[in-house]
Amino acid sequence: MGDSNEQSTLVIDGGSLTLGQLKAFEKTRPHVSLAAAARQRMQASADSVQKTVEAGTVSYGINTGFGAFATRVIPRDQTRRLQLNLIRSHACGTGDPLGATIVRRILLLKANSLAAGCSGARPLVVEMLLALLNNDVLPVIPCQGSVGASGDLAPLAHLALVLIGEGEARHGGTLLEGTAALQAIGMSTLEPEAKEGLALLNGTQLSLALALEGLFETQKLLDASIVAGALIVEGLAGSYAPFDERIQAVSRLPGQISVTRQLRTLLTDSDIHGSHRDCDRVQDPYAVRCMPQVFGAVENTLQHARQILGYAVNGVSDNPLVFDDAVLSGGNFHAEPIGFISDFLAIAAAELASVAERRIDLLDRRVNPNLNMFLATEPGLESGFMMAHVTAAALVSENKTYAHPASVDSLPTSAGQEDHVSMAPWAGRKLQRICENSARVLAIELLVGAHAIDCQRPLQTTPQLSKVHAELRKSVPYRGRDHRLDHDIEALTILVRAGRLSQFIARA
Fold this sequence. Notes:
- This protein is mostly helical.
- The protein has 19 helices and nine strands.
- The chain has helices at 19-28, 36-55, 79-90, 100-115, 123-134, 153-163, 178-184, 196-201, 205-235, 245-249, 254-266, 271-274, 286-289, 291-312, 336-364, 386-402, 424-455, 463-475, 486-497; strands at residues 9-12, 31-34, 94-97, 138-139, 142-144, 168-171, 174-177, 321-323, 326-328.
- The strands form four sheets. The protein has a three-stranded antiparallel β-sheet with strand order 4-6-7. Strands 1-2 form a two-stranded parallel sheet.
- β1, α1 (19-28) and β2 form a beta-alpha-beta unit.
- α9 runs antiparallel to α14, α11 (254-266) crosses α14 (291-312) and α17 packs across α19.
- The protein is elongated and about 85 Å long.
- It starts with 8 loop residues before the first strand and ends in an 11-residue tail after the last helix.
């Protein structure tokens, strides 16, 4: 692989792409090339397919129809036409186009999967995909139309359309027809050989790209939650006792131990904490006291997601697969493992927002007797953050619907041949919506948390939280009177989604 630090060049080989490289890819945009060894494997695989065609051996997707037409044998002189017909007939996606980040990731993942040399595609196919990627020619791919088995057929067909000079792509801010997009970067159209159309369409790259986005976004949400939760502890004049390392150690749960260590780096000691050492409050509500348990569960989920998706980025999800001595039909296109991960992440991200809403309510309800209800300067005359909490509640309620697992659903297609599907693309798409909603809820929590710190002046919070507070105030200045809050919420949402609060999290 290329240098993971500089990322000036990324060499894909179908087996060693890392999550770190994928995460950095959109920021660094390295030039991507195909490893020489991968090129050799791909050519050998393509040669095997041609031998199958020449021998007339019946092999699914090479010289047969697809899905329910798998028993229809296709004459040798029609195998190229078969691939073109497949691409055209399967390009029936609908809905809004996928964003640029997701499309770039799909191109990279598809190229890396083909580079493994098990799909029967020539090196030329990957070289064309990488030419699109390196020149930022982005096929227009509708977001709807895939059930996550047999792969993400409809969306990937729209990608493949551009390679054959059809469909549409964006380049330099301009929408171009397929042939024009290729000509703009000095490329001619692909004439797919046997199996190559199917190799382009059959795969889980959309499902995987969406799940990866959910993984990266949920990590940022967890970091923001830890920071926001620590602010709320100070805002509520809460106890540090629930974060004692002895409590976490006996849980035996690594995620819980890890996130609580991060909380303790923020909650070292402060004037605010010292001011209530002798108060008569025995315990804080669960939303504060149980942050180690809730955040720890999210960290455990993220760790599981990293492991599974780390395997999947180098997986081959095509069908059939071409090996040295055989062409074998299987089911790697079934995106159930990825669908599960997106569903797990959706639950985790929704829970971060749910417990954040409870902490917002605690501040609004004057659990800290030194603060006014709703943090209003003149309660009654002013409403303070009353409606900000209502907005948070609305978003959390939406999340509860979106968090219902998509992977428990299935609808047979292709005349019953494809009788159980994963719904992984929908799992990934609704995960994006949950992450967006949760970022806004956390923005509201940060907004009220920072305000609660200001309301307790001249008492100071911890040194680390003082730095957090200063970072928040760069985006949203302190205003002690009622004012419109939508701009403040959006500014802090941008901060959360950009991952700017991750700098305050101590990594092991």
